[in-house]
User: What shape does this take?
Amino acid sequence: MDFMGDRIKKRRESLNIQATELANSIGVSASLISQIERAKAYPSILTLKKIADALHITVGELIGEQSSLNSHPVVRQSQKKFVKKNKGGTRSYLLSHHDQSKLMDPFLLVFKENGDSTDIMTTRNPGQEYLYVLEGTFDVIVGSASYTIKAGDSFYFTSDENHLFTNTNKGTSQLLWIVNQNN
Assistant: This one.
């Protein structure tokens, strides 16, 4: 929140709104708006929400959710986020930080022996998906076509067809899965 005041001021000015006008519209003094913009005071959650609404922006954008991603693009091994596990033991991990402007989501999928992608890789969504086999061998069904892919192979397809990836390796297998945000 170091630069929240700057973000408020820039957004207010981009909309050609005077500080007094903003203050009047949300029921606070122009002095308070000035103090917030100069980081001399911090608004309550309620006041921050009113400011965001008046400026047609989200609270997240005002407090810098997206700037956090830009200043911290690295996700360390220990920071990967567990997302989901299905009945067959397949687990998915998100490999990036949250950002509303992301165009894709990268995941690590870890399959137990004979595990598959049921309830992990959703079906029948608009968009595209890319997979890279990090370890193991998979039988793949996309629509009515079948494939076998192994470590080092990649696979690119449109998500609007039913698809299923099944680990046929003796032991654990892993995929890097990248999904565009249309999904």
Observations:
- The mean pLDDT is 87.
- The CA atoms of residues 92 and 109 lie 5 Å apart.
- Helices lie at 4-14, 19-26, 30-37, 45-54, 59-63, 65-71.
- The two ends are 31 Å apart (CA to CA).
